[in-house]
Amino acid sequence: MKPKRTILCVDEDERSLSIHKVMLETRGYRVVACSKPELALEAMKIGGIDLLIADLPMPRPGGVRLVDQLKSISPSTPAIVFKGPSVAGPDGMLADILLSKSSCSAAQLLDHVRMALVRKRGPKPAMPRLPQANNSPQPSAWSRPLHNKMA
User: Fold this and answer.
1) Are strands 51-55 and 97-100 parallel, antiparallel or unpaired?
2) Which domains are present in the chain?
3) Chunked mean pLDDT (size 10), the chain, 151 residues
């Protein structure tokens, strides 16, 4: 059984946070849901987070700053960031994927989650090649006749 991936969801809107949590948990992910930026920072410091999903218009610290702080704690953790319709994509933000909250469906979000986690994990390791079989038959212990030695 493959281990569950852990996703940190950060959103000040409890309803939206709850919807994302249920949607992701029913797909087999472990979800750490935080409605306060301070809790998200603590969760990231503890470690074990495979993906960050954050809503950009956070009151304190600003959503952009929060994402940058979380990414500074764990730079290899991919970040999917939702922005409101009036929020422009800020320059220099460390988000890996920037989505519009109003136009992103649940299926699209799940596709982005899968792709971000695959990119983090990297390609599957190549299967080791088995040595080529030699065409000449080799005697094995099973092909030799058994001899009973009597004393």
Assistant:
1) unpaired
2) 6-121 (3.40.50.2300)
3) 85 92 95 93 94 75 74 92 63 75 88 88 56 54 53 50
